[in-house]
Amino acid sequence: MNPTPVPDEFAEALGQARPRLGPLAARVLWYEAIGSTNDRALAWAEGGAEEGCLVLADAQSAGRGRLGRTWTSPPGAGIYASLVLRPPPHAIGLLTMAAGLGVSEGIAAATGLDTHVKWPNDVCAPGRVPRKLAGLLAEAGSAGDRVLHVVLGIGINVLPAAYPPDVAPRAASLEGELGRMVPRGLVLAECLAALWSRYAMLSAGNERGVLADWRRRAAATFGRRVEWDTPSGVRTGIARDVDASGALVVAAESEVVRLMAGEVRWVE
User: Is the pTM of the predicted complex or chain greater than 0.85?
Assistant: First the structure.
């Protein structure tokens, strides 16, 4: 399917936020339906798309999250976006965390909902048990050891219809939390503005500032039990912090473990 004109709800909000977006969304491709916005953005990046190019869709048939999971993307129920970024090498390790922080701040600016972040890439509704409102997926294009570009996928549940009933206990939506209609264009624009601010901070070398603010938004998740798989079986521990590289620091029995990647399950 070919791109069509960007709907007014998005075009107007992005236009009003233009002075705060840097290069983000200077060029936008809009699709009524697409397989995956990340796939389209990766192809665009490989073809030379400049930093900030944005792919948006009203629906995805093959949206995905971390570790190959499906990201449910029914028409009109969420925000499905992918950005082309060309970060400096030192910014790559914390890019997803900086973006998650920006999305959390953008949701607050657009709606007043004070969300929190959960390692490594989730934005969650407030409450004792984190329920996912938004997720991020970074996929890189490389030549040898050099990263040429990163495509950052952003999925935000706006309506409860954005997720299937079987994941309802673990998911949330903006309208479900607020009990009122939420303008998708405004949410997207504020998330991109906050994301650009955090990305610029990270690119300028202020990793400490990004991590300090991320920790504040993640405070509700620290002290919770997590489990993860190892070659010798499942291990458990208590999430305590993140370190300077963005690894999750877990107190496990008599040792401290740093988890860099893979699946971490947050135990209720």
Answer: yes
